[in-house]
Design goal:
single chain, mainly alpha, Arc Repressor Mutant, subunit A, 64% helix
Length: 249
């Protein structure tokens, strides 16, 4: 399953604002505004782009206003890491831990993977890139991967699989999707969902209940149609010169 496009889409960042009053009231910005812009830069350009001056420039405020909300750059970077843990990792773990049975858990995971508001694959990739140059982040990513796999290994065990088999099946399920993102695979929605029963059997060794498969397929296609309509509407608004400029974050 592939995810819907993230809200953190690539965007041109503005040039430095002219000398004088900045175009944004600095007092109106909150800590969350800085975090969201930091996430956008992290996803679009990598961790080296997440610098205080660059963030201030993108937000149209003075560099000094950053320190109203954060002690230093490290404080902001901690918030980016925390956001990723509370969203991406939490979405995967919750899919397993709240499921009543194995089918529900796997389908809930599929739902999370296609909802960028819950699991953002571009942010996940950005964290992995960051981890390659920062030992602390490498450790955090490894711990997150372990927690995600462990949550599904426990679900497989609850469904009757022996401990080692449960662990390996959880790895296969999780690693398959990480690889899907890494390879940047793109498929039409109808084609992707047509593989549902085959994926399920590959991940579980069991046949999927036809009624549950049909219900999930219908929900998936309805959601895909809604996402496509929303994306088209957003594109139309972006191209409409009469549309007021949107808040950047």
């Amino acid at each position: 399953m592939s995810a819907a496009k993230s809200d953190l889409a690539p965007m041109p960042l503005p040039e430095a604002f002219p000398t004088g009053r900045p175009p944004v009231d600095e007092r109106a910005l909150c800590r969350r505004d800085w975090v969201e812009m930091g996430l956008r830069l992290l996803v679009d350009e990598g961790i080296d782009a997440v610098k205080i001056t660059r963030l201030a420039q993108a937000l149209g405020v003075t560099r000094g206003s950053f320190y109203w909300h954060f002690k230093d750059r490290a404080d902001l970077l901690d918030q980016l890491l925390d956001h990723w843990q509370r969203h991406n990792t939490a979405a995967v773990v919750a899919a397993a831990e709240t499921a009543q049975d194995l089918t529900e858990g796997i389908l809930a995971l599929f739902d999370a993977w296609i909802d960028a508001d819950r699991f953002d694959p571009r942010l996940d990739s950005a964290l992995r890139d960051w981890a390659r140059q920062t030992p602390r982040i490498k450790t955090a990513v490894a711990e997150a991967d372990q927690a995600r796999v462990a949550a599904f290994a426990a679900l497989y065990q609850r469904a009757g699989y022996e401990k080692t088999e449960a662990f390996i099946r959880a790895r296969i399920l999780y690693f398959a999707q990480v690889g899907y993102y890494a390879l940047n695979i793109e498929e039409p929605d109808a084609q992707r969902i047509s593989f549902l029963e085959s994926y399920f059997k590959g991940f579980t060794g069991r046949d999927m209940d036809p009624a549950r498969a049909a219900a999930h397929r219908a929900k998936f296609l309805a959601g895909a149609a809604q996402r496509n309509r929303s994306q088209n509407q957003n594109q139309d608004q972006d191209q409409d010169p009469a549309t007021p400029e949107k808040r950047r974050v």
